[in-house]
Design goal:
Blueprint lengths: L1 H23 L19 H11 L4 E3 L2 E4 L3 E4 L22 E7 L5 H15 L4 E5 L6 E5 L4 E3 L7 E6 L7 H12 L14 E3 L45 E3 L15 H10 L4
Parallel strand pairs: 4-5, 4-6, 6-8
Antiparallel strand pairs: 1-2, 2-3, 7-8, 9-10
Helix pairs in contact: 3-4
The structure holds zinc ion (ZN).
Length: 276
């Protein structure tokens, strides 16, 4: 009998210690977000997770939800499936891909500058050009709605890109959302990602496990890009501060990107849009 009581006391102690470790561990931060990893700043996606998990609601409106954390999907509308090659923006005869946009008047001058810097990140070294909307049928409507998100690829007509102020107004975040609008999904959603990274399923916040699904993507014959601005950080959606994605080749590889596109991100754009 004493033995059973002793066992009960022991297991209660163990679970109390565990709970305490979870709640008060210095590693523990808001769920799904880690302030900085040991090797520097958080990735663009870390900032997006922070903004979307703590500011935005999951359901953007009655018919729109977020997939993978920041890709808007309309449930009401029969949305086209955009995996890289479909849903691309049309190309002009001069070889450029002009993407028209409108900017909400709610943005300050400084915020407008940041958004333009995010556009320049995409334009540099590619044939994509963002142009203020005049009459174009398809265009981006950039709005400070709730959270940072975009639809995938060109949907036809007006499509919203949400860049909430101030949380989403960071150059890397802005460029990341424009990459979605160009048609790119997250790098670790690639169908062949298991050759390159290990997803640490038990460390993922249970409600967000779906954000780590793989998709039948077209990798455009480009190598897996650990440093893509579209890659989740090592601690994305961690429930206890432990890594959720570990590179297979070396643990010292930094995942994701903070400020701008990687070299391979540019190649992706140039291949998908057949830039000269
Ligand atoms: Zn994203």
């Amino acid at each position: 009998m004493e033995w059973i009581i002793l066992m009960c006391v022991f297991s209660t102690c163990i679970s109390a210690v565990h709970t305490q470790k979870f709640l008060f561990s210095p590693q523990w931060g808001p769920i799904g977000y880690k302030e900085h990893d040991e090797r520097g700043h958080g990735t663009a996606m870390d900032e997006i997770i922070k903004a979307n998990e703590f500011q935005a609601s999951r359901m953007l409106d009655g018919a729109t939800t977020l997939r993978e954390g920041d890709i808007a999907v309309s449930t009401g509308r029969r949305s086209k499936v955009c995996f890289a090659r479909s849903c691309i923006w049309s190309k002009s005869v001069d070889g450029h891909v002009y993407i028209a946009y409108t900017l909400s008047p709610e943005y300050s001058e400084m915020e407008t500058e940041l958004i333009k810097k995010g556009m320049e990140n995409i334009e540099k070294g590619t044939c994509v050009r963002f142009v203020p909307w005049t009459h174009q049928r398809d265009y981006l409507d950039i709005q400070p709605k709730s959270g940072c998100w975009s639809y995938l690829g060109a949907r036809g007509g007006r499509q919203t890109v949400s860049l909430q102020s101030p949380d989403c107004l960071q150059v890397g975040v802005i460029s990341h959302e424009f990459m979605h609008a160009l048609g790119f999904v997250h790098e670790q959603s690639r169908f062949d990602r298991d050759n390159y990274v290990t997803i640490m399923w038990p460390n993922i916040w249970r409600d967000r496990v779906r954000n780590f699904e793989k998709f039948r993507t077209d990798s455009l014959d480009l190598p897996y890009d650990y440093g893509s601005i579209m890659h989740f950080g090592m601690y994305a959606y961690s429930q206890d501060g432990e890594p959720t994605i570990i590179p297979k080749s070396s643990k010292n590889i930094k995942l994701g990107q903070t400020l701008t596109l990687s070299h391979i991100d540019k190649l992706k754009i140039n291949k998908l849009y057949k830039c000269g």
